[in-house]
Specification:
Layout lengths: L1 E5 L9 E4 L9 E11 L1 H8 L10 E2 L3 E9 L11 E4 L14 E5 L3 E3 L6 H21 L7 E4 L5 H12 L3 E6 L2 H10 L3 E4 L5 H8 L4 E6 L6 H7 E9 L11 H6 L3 E4 L7 H16 L7 E6 L3 H14 L7 E5 L5
Helix pairs in contact: 2-3, 2-8
Length: 334
């Protein structure tokens, strides 16, 4: 089978495209004929070695995939041959990734895909959708009628936060850095789109929410705690899912006097049950059109290295034109 893999960590050109033997599903696993995958920042961190991970011989990259089950292992409980499925949480902690024509996945990390949802949509919403759902509902315990501020609302996770919060009945404020992204925020359902290059975020937020926001979702690599605590309402919650190397100053006094809380988390440490619960709601929202991917670029599997280059340019250097997810398709591969 054709796969995108690495034999050592390094820059994007360590990614190789080649033929490797397909694995047979062992007990409790399913083998998926992959139709679409997507790129996440964590994929590039593992490939580069920035995040330590067990790299096996010809280690397949990627966390997310969507496709059709081709075979199942013994004792598989929930899936059968021919089922449309999506998965995430692969390519992590020693597990082989998803950038291959055929992948074997533990059924605990696999989810049924509604017929009306495309493979590209499912792959694009997988890891970022899980992240947004866990942060909004497990961590921040979002309630209908509350106000959410999402910094970077057109990014992979940000676009999920905007749509999920809106679907749940929240008022959504979000920031964007260009006129195109500003328009996209409104298309995603944001009630207030803030062009931070033209106006101060603080002024725009307090004009729309004079008493502050209930949830402040931070996506920047350098969190701004002064800004967040100023904009949070009493007992507001701040969610962190980025800024691995950041060491910003933290205003302790205003934080605890307002009875705020800070929630840091990573998706891949969630339990099987937590992710299954999130997946069920993600499926409902994808099926009824309330959750749509913000796809910026679509490429074939053979351009996996280029996909990683573009993802890193956007994530690490804020360069390029990427404003959403990169999707790779395998159905047209030779």
């Amino acid at each position: 089978m054709k796969a995108a893999y690495i034999e050592k960590t390094g820059p994007s050109d360590v990614i190789q495209i080649g033929e490797i033997p397909a694995e047979s599903p062992s007990s409790g696993k399913v083998r998926i004929r992959v139709h679409a995958v997507s790129v996440n920042p964590i994929d590039t961190y593992i490939r580069s070695g920035a995040v330590a991970s067990e790299i096996n011989d010809r280690y397949i990259i990627g966390c997310d995939a969507a496709g059709i089950i081709e075979s199942v292992g013994e004792d598989t409980q929930n899936f059968k041959i021919g089922d449309r499925v999506w998965c995430t949480n692969q390519g992590l902690q020693g597990r082989q990734g998803t950038f291959a024509e055929l992948i074997c996945v533990d059924e605990d990390w696999c989810y049924h895909l509604p017929d009306e949802v495309s493979f590209e949509t499912a792959a694009s919403c997988a890891l970022v959708g899980m992240t947004a759902h866990l942060g909004l509902f497990r961590e921040a315990r979002l309630q209908a009628g509350e106000i959410v501020l999402c910094i970077g609302g057109t990014g992979g996770v940000g676009s999920m936060v905007v749509q999920m919060a809106k679907a749940y009945g929240a008022t959504v404020l979000a920031t964007a850095g260009s006129p195109e992204k500003h328009r996209r925020l409104l298309e995603l359902g944001a009630d207030v789109a803030i062009a931070y290059n033209q106006t101060a975020i603080e002024d725009s937020v307090l004009q729309a929410a004079p008493k502050g926001v209930n949830v402040f979702w931070e996506t920047r690599r350098e969190p701004n705690f002064d800004q967040a605590i100023e904009l949070l309402a009493p007992r507001g919650r701040m969610v962190l899912m980025a800024g691995r190397d950041a060491k910003p100053v933290f205003p302790v006094g205003p934080f605890y006097v307002k009875e705020c809380s800070l929630h840091g988390f990573v998706m891949f440490k969630a339990t099987v049950l937590e992710m299954k619960t999130a997946a069920e709601e993600i499926n409902r929202w994808m099926a009824n059109g309330k959750l749509q991917p913000n796809i910026s670029l679509q490429l074939p599997l053979s351009q996996a290295a280029e996909a990683h280059r573009q993802q890193e340019a956007a994530t690490l250097r804020n360069e390029g034109n990427l404003s959403g997810k990169i999707v790779l398709t395998l159905t047209n591969e030779n």
